[in-house]
Amino acid sequence: MEKIILTGDRPTGKLHLGHYVGSLKRRVELQNSGEFDKIFIMIADAQALTDNADNPEKVRQNIIEVALDYLSCGLDPEKCTIFIQSQVPELCELAFYYMNLVTVQRLQRNPTVKQEIQMRGFSDDEENQNKKGTPVGFFTYPISQASDITAFKATTVPVGVDQAPMIEQTREIVHKFNSVYGETLVLPEMVLPENTTCCRLPGTDGKAKMSKSLGNCIYLSDTSKEIKKKVNSMFTDPEHLQITDPGHVEGNVVFTYLDAFCTTEHFAKFLPEYANLDEMKDHYRRGGLGDGTCKKFLFNIMEEFLAPIRERRKVYEQDIPQVFEILRKGSEVARAQAAKTLEEVKDAMKINYFADKDLIAEQAAKYKAK
After folding, report:
1. Mean pLDDT value of segment 73-89
2. Residues in Cβ contact with 82 at an 8 Å cutoff, skipping those fewer than 6 apart
3. Which of 53, 38, 151, 136 is nearest to 95 (CA)?
4. Which domains does the chain have, with CATH numbers?
């Protein structure tokens, strides 16, 4: 069996560090490992429209932003297929068939769906006039995601920990389909970030999740000046009022980011007073290390990391038509694969009427015998 990856992002804005540590970094590593036969990277515009139906221009404009972030981070169109979800209509047809394999009650129990509905201010209570109802397309996102994954026969899906329930639901759909119609779909496995800190990188304000809507993101395309401003505004330890005060590193966003990004080499380059992060944390805990020093160190690390990404992005920005051509070609490749899977699904479901010569011959013989 071929080893295939399917993953992607919603184009609702530029990508940020949470996207990078949660999945992008791993995608580039997997792409360059040579371990996989095919890699599909999807810009999920159709899914983004489920909760942005009143602002389609936002989704339209951010297609190119996500594509630029992908390319600047090192995703290579020669090694992976980057495509736009809406340009592969077979995905919608697959999702329609899968809807019959999932109950409303099961979707309501999906913790990711519940969390996302709450975060966006939707309501499942028709009597609540203060909140918008949940769009059906948004509610059925796990089914759409199952369509995306199975269409490309993905064996591996790199995700953040918050998406784990969605992959589990995909696996349930695959089991159900194969048990009803015969072995047709491939059962996917998820890959979580190896660094546990990266499973859920907090926002700069200390909120549990970095989110565009909360305005607490560091974007991959941020300028040096923007990064510095955001690092300097980061939530630290509210009890660490004086440099001499003992400090807490747990829940301290600066140290969470250092856990995710810093290496021993960074200390030799930017903060030689310490041999490693453990020494730095010990000093902060006992007092005598200021937040300003910690933030300056983190800024230097962030700038070293993001500067090359920013520079690669500038190069791609000079040839936007070529970026769209990459997406067009990728969408053609993706559609061909999805069409093949859809044909196999329809064969299994016995709704391949015109291709089923046995059915036609059987029906012809039946009526001739009358």
Report:
1. 97
2. 41, 43, 67, 70, 75, 326, 327, 330
3. 151
4. 4-201+320-360 (3.40.50.620), 224-315 (1.10.240.10)
- Mapped onto helix, strand or coil, the DSSP state of residue 67 is helix
Which residue spans within the chain are E strands per DSSP?
4-9, 38-43, 81-84, 122-123, 132-133, 156-158, 189-191
Query: DSSP labels for 4-55?
Result: EEEEEE--SS--BHHHIIIIIHHHHHHHHHT--SEEEEEE-HHHHGGG-TT-
pLDDT at position 11 is 96
- Would you say residue 126 has pLDDT above 80? no
Q: What are the phi and psi torsion angles at 159 (to 5°)?
A: -140, 165
- Say which amino acid occupies 276: N
In angstroms, the CA 365 to CA 309 distance is 66
State how far the alpha carbon of 335 is from the alpha carbons of 64, 123, 189, 220, in Å.
20, 35, 23, 29
- Token code pair at residue 134: 């949940």
157: helix, coil or strand? strand
Q: Check residues 119 and 42 and name the one with the higher pLDDT.
A: 42
How many contiguous H segments (helices) and E segments (strands) does the chain have?
A: 17, 7
Q: How far apart are CA 113 and CA 106, in angstroms?
A: 10
User: How high is the pLDDT of residue 144?
Assistant: 96
Lowest mean pLDDT, pick from 84-93, 98-107, 127-136: 127-136
pLDDT value at position 193?
Answer: 67
Tokens (6 digits) for 111: 């913790």
Render pLDDT for 188-228 as a digit per residue (tens, 0 to 9): 998 876 655 555 789 999 887 787 778 899 999 999 999 99
Across-strand partners of 5? 39, 156
Instruction: Kindly give the pairing relationship between strand 122-123 and strand 81-84.
Output: unpaired
